[in-house]
Amino acid sequence: MRFILVSLSVLLVTLSSANAQSSPKLAPIPADKWIISQLNTFYSMRANTRLEDIRKKIEVGFRKKDLGENGISQQDYDIEDQINQARMRAKTILRWATNDLNGDGRVTRNEYSIMYSRKVPMVLRFGRERVATTPEQRARLTEKSVSKEMQADIDEDGAISLQEAIALSRTTIRNNYVFSPRYTTLRRIPPSFDKNQDGKITLSEFTAVSDRLLKRLDTDRNGRLDREEIKYYYQLRKRASKALLRDYLPGLLRK
């Protein structure tokens, strides 16, 4: 009996070690690499742009994320996610309500058919050519759109209720790339910016890193970014983005 207990203990330790080795902890994303990969999301890079103008845009972009105006924390990102999800839910529910022609709180297949039959194009464009659609083609396009909408009919009663529309909005949110681990990890400012490790990233901590990059890009030290310097930035960005995905975000690469 004692032998069996010892064997089980050894087995559990071995399995724990194997799991720890197979799921290594992700290394923290370096601030310098992150700012290179994301600088153009704060400012659209154009030739002959003053560094001061870029700094102002960076500050504005930071303040939009700093909802409490006391440094960006995880709470700011949680609130931002809640706001974005609420907007997506509202958009889905509004689209559902727009098709509720008789206002009874249920959208039937017939109501969807009426609405989509008015949206189907009478003319399709293929490059510069325009081809008129036949009644049969419009009917097929309408049916295809209606069938897609009716997939939300969970109880299969032939109509989409408000609760089913809400359930559809949750599915839409889950499938949206904005809330995917890859997107959120790349878009969120990493903790490596938090030099004093107080759980918040301040504007001064953020701009200290972005200023180092801007000085690096301004190779001729004239306070502006010319065409060649911007080209140099995009070369750095390409390398930094690949490095982030390869070295710091394993498992989040797109298949």
How is this structure best described in words?
The protein is mainly alpha-helical. The chain has two domains: 27-72 and 189-255, no CATH class; 89-176, Orthogonal Bundle (Recoverin, domain 1), CATH 1.10.238. It has helices at 2-22, 31-42, 51-65, 74-98, 109-119, 135-149, 162-175, 181-187, 203-217, 227-248; strands at residues 49-50, 106-108, 123-126, 129-132, 159-161, 224-225. The longest helix is centred in the middle third of the chain and has 25 residues, at 74-98.
Average pLDDT for all residues: 83
Strand order of the largest sheet: 1-6
User: By helix and strand content, what is the structural category?
Assistant: mainly alpha
Biggest β-sheet, characterized? 2 strands, antiparallel
Strand content: 5-15%
Number of helices: 10
Alpha-carbon distance between the termini?
A: 49 Å
Which residue ranges are poorly predicted, with pLDDT under 50 across at least 5 consecutive positions? Answer: 1-24
SSE string: HHEHHEHEEHEHHHEH
- The whole-angstrom Rg is 26 Å
Number of folding domains?
2
Query: What's the total count of β strands?
Result: 6
Shape: elongated
Q: Which tags fit this structure?
A:
mainly alpha, disordered N terminus, 255 residues, two-stranded antiparallel sheet, 2 domains, Recoverin, domain 1
Can you lay out the helices and strands and say which pair or pack?
Blueprint: H1 2-22, H2 31-42, E1 49-50, H3 51-65, H4 74-98, E2 106-108, H5 109-119, E3 123-126, E4 129-132, H6 135-149, E5 159-161, H7 162-175, H8 181-187, H9 203-217, E6 224-225, H10 227-248
Antiparallel strand pairs: 1-6, 2-5, 3-4
